[in-house]
Amino acid sequence: MSNEHSDLSERAQLMLRALIERYVCDGQPVGSRTLAREAGLDLSPATVRNVMSDLEELGFVCSPHTSAGRVPTVQGYRFFVDTLLKVQPLDERSINNMRLELSLDQTPKNLVGAASSLLSGITQLAGVVTLPRQEHALFKRVEFLGLSERRVLAILVTGEDEVQNRILSTEKQLSASELQQASNYLNQMFAGKDLSEVRAALLHEMQETRANMNSMMVTAMHMADQVLEKNQDEDYIMAGQTNLMGFHELCDIDKLRKLFDAFSAKRDMLHLLDQCIHTDGIQIFIGDESGYRMLDECSMVTAPYSVDGKILGVLGVIGPTRMAYERVIPIVDATARLLGAALNQKE
Fold first, then answer.
1. For the chain, how long is the longest CA-to-CA vector?
2. Per-residue pLDDT, 214
3. Residue 189: its pLDDT value, please?
4. What pLDDT, on a 0 to 100 scale, did the predictor assign at position 19?
5. Rounded distance between C-alpha atoms, residue 71 and residue 81, angstroms
6. Which of 88, 140, 220, 242 shows its CA 20 to 30 Å from the CA of 170?
7. pLDDT given for residue 234 in this prediction
């Protein structure tokens, strides 16, 4: 935190907290009179306006052109979450009810689905949980067999000789010789690497060195990209997406379409969730901090879940930036611990 933010007066902090809590409640810009009342401070409207001007200068609040009231910015939410937030711990009864939802008589995949539904049901936001990572998800080899015109059967061998078949579409009909060249190229390049490494390398090669590739290499890359995209179709389970339609800042049809398209395509979401695998405890992306435009008006609260100290995946909640962080954070944290415990019983 910068020095100019760390010496924010206690009065300004109280008012910022009151403004955010009020805005989270009703989603309406907060005026000076309302703010003074909410903060419990005996201040004149003029004094309140002066403090609000200071907060606006710091970038913590802004004034929508349609209203004299203020709303929090991403920077304001970040300061609130990092400095002012008072997390409400869950009571034992709530935790026991959550534990019952994650019963032990379910398969690991069903447990992940139950955790996703649990998160969305309790928070009334969207819940997302990645499936447990396979221990040996290595790329061993891929073979391509021509089917009908511009359709190819891809045979992907991973880990302990697990075989997965995928039907791909190609821009043109490829001969048996071209398909063999493509598989030889990919097998030589990626054999023995983790699938996540292969995905990252594919994206890098296609973005950085495409201009220097011959047409066969480009074709091979595109087919490999399709194989891995289809392979990750069920890498996470999401529930409660329609809950997001209840927030006025997200209910614009164009925004919703882009958001739901991103949920369906999964690539960007998986990349974001993969970042959370490598962090301890709760991680919070607010607005444009995620780096993905479709999430600019959303926040995501995540936590990794683990068995015997080994992180298997990530779960979290997606909602508007004005979510009730003090309530969502302990729910995400508890669900991560309970899912890990339930999966541990499956080992």
1. 82
2. 66
3. 85
4. 92
5. 16
6. 140
7. 54
Q: Which residues pair with 284 in a beta bridge?
A: 301
Find the angle CA(162)-CA(165)-CA(167) to the nearest 5 degrees: 160
Cα(72)–Cα(65) distance, integer angstroms? 14
The burial of 313, by beta-carbon neighbours within 10 Å (0-12 exposed, 13-18 middle, 19 or more buried), is given as: buried
pLDDT of residue 135: 47
Which residue has 């990092």 as its token pair?
Answer: 82
pTM assigned to the model: 0.71
The SS3 of residue 4 is helix
Distance of alpha carbon 320 from alpha carbon 123, whole angstroms: 12
Beta strand spans in the chain (E) = 61-62, 71-72, 126-130, 139-146, 151-158, 162-169, 236-239, 283-286, 298-307, 310-320
pLDDT at 59: 93
Please, which residues bridge with residue 162 across strands? Answer: 158
Rounded to the nearest 10 degrees, how much is the dihedral formed by the CA atoms of 157, 161, 165, 169? 0
Residue 29 one-letter amino acid: P
Query: Rounded CA gap, 208 and 203, in Å?
Result: 8
Separation CA 237–CA 113 (nearest Å): 6
Please give the pLDDT value at position 2: 43
- In terms of Cβ atoms closer than 10 Å to its own Cβ (0-12, 13-18, 19+), residue 228 is buried
CA distance linking residue 176 with residue 145, whole number of Å: 7
Q: In the prediction, which pLDDT does 270 show?
A: 78
Q: Which residues in the chain come in under a pLDDT of 70?
A: 1-7, 66-67, 104-105, 133-137, 159-161, 196, 206-214, 216, 229-234, 346-347
Q: Are 323 and 299 in contact (CB under 8 A)?
A: yes
